[in-house]
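Form 7-S
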Amino acid sequence: MSRNIVIIQGHPDCCRSHLCHALADAYAEAAIQAGHTVVRVDIARINFPLLQTAEDFNSGVVPVALKPATDAIIAADHLVLVFPLWLGTAPALVKAFLEQTMRPGVAFAYEAFGAKKLLTGRSAHIVVTMGMPAWLYRTFFCSHGIRALSRNVFRFVGFSPMRTTMFGSIETASDKTRNSWLAVMRRSGAEPC
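Output:
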């Protein structure tokens, strides 16, 4: 079954290519070859303001620069978010992007006793690179930053199922290891969860 996929590149450095870019490219290439429709969003290439007040979040509109990204998220069946782990979680630019695009009226609606999820029926895959070993982040740090992002943003607005892939010790990884990571992304792109 063909799916509409949005791949969000969350690496804050748009000046050069990083492992995050290679992972997203491998995913996209395999997804397109499998017959899926792919839209790419590179957060670092979008100039948008930070949210600074609750009023802006609750009743403001999505900035014009983020409208295409927001439309792509709404139209997607599957979302892939790729970013490097910084201080135990997503870089600030990723959080700023999510605050703007996952706002009331777009991703959820306030109701008398909670919130209505507006993005149900979509799956998501969070892909994270990190300097520490992935097993260490999972066991010692309990994946706290990624679990919070998954639960407090994506599940909150309706994404399910959720999948997370972590690639650790990236600075010391061999070419063979990096190639195996690209193969993992190609398999995931060919058959998104």
